[in-house]
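step: validate -> pass
step: tokenize input -> pass
step: predict -> running
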Amino acid sequence: MTGALTVRELGGLDELARTPPLARSIWGEADAPEDPILLHVLQHVGGLIAGAVDGQGQVWAYLVGLPTAQPDTQHSHRLGVHPRCRRQGLGERLKHFQRAWCLERGVTRVRWTFDPLLLANAHLNIHRLGAAAVTYLPNYYGEMTGINAGVPSDRFEVEWQLDSERVTAHLNGHAGDNWPAGEAFDPLHDGLPAETPDALAVRVPADYYRMLREEPGRALEWRRRTRPLFDSLFQAGHALVDVDVAHQQYLFRRRVVC
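step: predict -> pass
step: emit ->
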């Protein structure tokens, strides 16, 4: 990568054709990225295809947002950053671009999914952007390959209410959530609580992808133990509302306005 990157909509089949190799560099050679013609059609019917592009036209990160049956809601299907460009805030820049793009068109809510055990993703989605996870989707994509292979493809579904006071506060760095006192719930060692408190801190792995590569059995155990916990929290009316990346914890609280 050379020079500064510009975040903007991607346009034309030649530019859209640069996303499949990018997808494989992010998620592995076995990934099945969207056909550029399909992306072109999605743009035509109201979808968003955005990317981070350098001065030579190379695309280093991209986002795909799909229209839904609800005119005020977009589904964010893909967000990926080339390994050489990670930890530069590109994912967050793409989400900010998506928010502005949607609000200009009367879209006030964005939904998407992410792996419940990816702490870094949760920190961006929940703490930095102010989205809230509200639903648990077990094995949502079925058996996966590449960096996601080896465990069921469980996912959180999040809602990002673009024009809410809560989202505005998070975007301005003022999360403001009060964490409960005491030790966080440890899914590998603590049993499911008989009565769920209004607020519960839950410990999660520091780097689940690394665990999946190096300790696949332990990664599978984390999935097996957290699935009933997270699902029961959502069923009891909780949402994932904040993330403490330094202490590797999630904060669940009885449902708030997202």
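step: describe -> The chain is about 30% helix and 25% strand.
step: cleanup -> pass
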